[in-house]
Q: What sequence folds into this?
């Protein structure tokens, strides 16, 4: 599977753009603010039906306009597939595959998988446990629809249990029988979520460790530890926490409290990792994400590498490029604000690659490879 071409109309800083891609490596070069990330974001949109940068759909419309569209032509199993994503002010978002609208946008997820590595976005490392749960939930949900449904049902039950706790506080009363069904629901659904997360981490961990070891030439040893209330006696945990739940008016036990601890040489990466080490850990997480999807979906996801070279030393850049230029990966999109760096890196590898100049919301194939 690869993206043959894209057509943008009024997406972010693009008025109109049409680009034909290499099935292997595509490298976008240009000054800060020229539109490199926006172009990768449009490819991301075709895969996930949303922007990667948390922007609301309407914020993606070019300023002073009232709609945008992104049309991508994919080659998949010898067939051409056309994905169209469009948004207009005041209208429902449109996602179409070969001119047919989906009933639900979520049906599209996982069909044209992509993995974005934007190492400047270290939220998953430096942010809260919720950022990490979201990261892993997004990966698992792409391969397991039932997990996603359980997650949605769990969050619904959690909301109901929490509002009941608030109600008790307001009314200054407590009714055990009223709370019980919601506690049951959280325990039942939570157990299903826990089992999937536990199995997932077991498969994911060797992938992560392998990529980190390659990237760092085994300079540091990393680990990932999954912590959950469900590892202990969950019935007891809920019973024990009841008093606290009533005082704080929210549920303090459950899979919504799960944590994934990222460790490097026995220390938490979040606290003690250097900027370059944190980026390396993030890149290894994303490459493992890639491997996991590849194994489960039986296709190579599109790999989007945004500003990947900054903050990595030359040796790590070289390892990374050797890795992504190997057979293991499929189509790749890369951005770099320093053309000479990318040109010298990619001219050393044998894969077909195209360079594009991005200037002020316009993309041009760069004829010369120097
Ligand atoms: N809805 C929008 N309408 C018009 N312009 C927008 C919109 N959204 C973002 N932009 C602009 O697009 C420009 C290009 O952003 P982009 O992040 O793609 O640049 P870049 O080439 O990746 O730069 P850098 O090298 O700094 O990463 C920014 O100046 C931003 O203000
Ligand atoms: Mg950028």
A:
């Amino acid at each position: 599977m690869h993206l043959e071409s894209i057509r943008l109309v009024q997406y972010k800083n693009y008025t109109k753009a049409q680009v034909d891609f290499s099935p292997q490596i595509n490298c976008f070069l240009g000054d800060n603010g020229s539109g490199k990330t926006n172009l990768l974001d449009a490819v991301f949109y075709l895969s996930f039906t949303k922007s990667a940068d948390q922007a609301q759909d309407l914020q993606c419309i070019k300023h002073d306009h009232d709609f945008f569209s992104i049309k991508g032509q994919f080659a998949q199993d010898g067939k051409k597939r056309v994905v169209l994503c469009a948004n207009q002010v005041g209208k429902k978002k449109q996602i179409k595959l070969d001119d047919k609208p989906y009933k639900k946008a979520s049906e599209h997820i996982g069909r044209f998988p992509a993995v974005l590595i934007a190492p400047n976005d270290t939220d998953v490392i430096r942010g809260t446990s919720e950022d990490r749960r979201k990261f892993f939930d997004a990966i698992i949900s792409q391969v397991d629809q039932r997990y996603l449904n359980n997650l949605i049902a769990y969050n619904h039950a959690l909301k109901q249990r929490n509002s009941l706790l608030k109600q008790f506080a307001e009314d200054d009363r407590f009714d055990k029988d009223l709370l019980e069904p919601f506690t049951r629901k959280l325990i039942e659904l939570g157990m299903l979520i826990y089992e999937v997360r536990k199995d997932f981490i077991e498969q994911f961990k060797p992938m992560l460790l392998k990529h980190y070891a390659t990237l760092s030439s085994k300079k540091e040893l990393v680990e990932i530890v999954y912590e959950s209330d469900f590892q202990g006696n969950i019935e007891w945990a809920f019973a024990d926490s009841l008093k606290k739940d009533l005082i704080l008016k929210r549920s303090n036990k459950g899979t919504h409290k799960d944590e994934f601890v990222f460790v490097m040489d026995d220390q938490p990466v979040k606290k003690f990792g250097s900027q370059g080490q944190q980026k390396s850990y993030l890149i290894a997480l994303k490459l493992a994400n890639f491997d996991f999807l590849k194994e489960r979906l039986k296709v190579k996801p599109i790999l989007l590498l945004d500003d990947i070279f900054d903050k990595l030393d030359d040796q790590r850049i070289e390892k990374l490029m050797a890795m992504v230029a190997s057979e293991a990966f499929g189509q790749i999109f890369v951005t770099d604000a320093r053309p000479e760096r990318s040109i010298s890196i990619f001219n050393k590898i044998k894969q077909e690659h195209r360079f594009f100049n991005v200037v002020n919301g316009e993309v041009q194939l760069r004829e010369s490879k120097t």
About this structure: The two ends are 29 Å apart (CA to CA).
